[in-house]
Amino acid sequence: xxxxxxxxxxxxxxxxxxxxxxxxxxxxxxxxxxxxxxxxxxxxxxxxxxxxxxxxxxxxxxxxxxxxxxxxxxxxxxxxxxxxxxxxxxxxxxxxxxxxxxxxxxxxxxxxxxxxxxxxxxxxxxxxxxxxxxxxxxxxxxxxxxxxxxxxxxxxxxxxxxxxxxxxxxxxxxxxxxxxxxxxxxxxxxxxxxxxxxxxxxxxxxxxxxxxxxxxxxxx
Length: 220
What we know:
Elements: E1 23-24, E2 31-32, E3 40-45, H1 52-70, E4 73-79, H2 83-97, E5 105-107, H3 112-116, E6 131-136, E7 142-148, H4 156-172, E8 186-187, H5 194-200, E9 207-210, E10 213-216
C-alpha cells in the first residue's frame, strides 16, 4: 500500500503579526520589505499578468498612486510571473490606458514570497496567487488583510478607505463605524469599567447613543 502524501498546512499571517520579511526581484530591481520601513505598505497580489480583471485593477492602482503617496503609503504588487512579463505588461498598460505604473511589482517565480504571505490557495490554483491585500504599518506589522477570489476585482477606493481608517486608529485610538469615510464622526472606544460607563453617558462633547456607543467628530 502506497503512503498517502499530505501537504504541510501553510499558516497564514495574522493581524498584529510582524510582516514576513522578503528580498525579491521586481520590475524596479531587487526590493526588500525593510526598504519601506517607516512607511505604510499596501502589498497586493494578482493571479497573472495580461489578464483582464488584473489589468483593470492595475490601471486603477496606477491612477491612484499619488493619492497613496499622499497618505504616506507605498504600493507593492506581486504575482508569480517573471520580471520580463511584468515589464511587458506594464508597458502595455501605459500604452493602452495612458497611465504610468510607478510602483514595483514583485516577480515571485519561486513562490517564496507568495507562500510566506499565504497568497496561494489550492482551492483556486496551485501556482497562481489569489487577490490578496496586506496593509503593513510603519513598524512592519500587519494591520489588515483581505482575500478575494480570482473572479472578483477589488475596489481600490475601499483599500484606500481601510488604510485611512487604520491610520486614524494609529494616530488617535479611534474606531470607525460601518461605511465611514474620512471627515465623518468616529467611534470612541467603549468604557472598560462601570464608573467610566456612568461618566460616559453624562458627557456633552460626544454624540451618545448609549454607554457603549459614542461618537466624536473626526480629528482635524
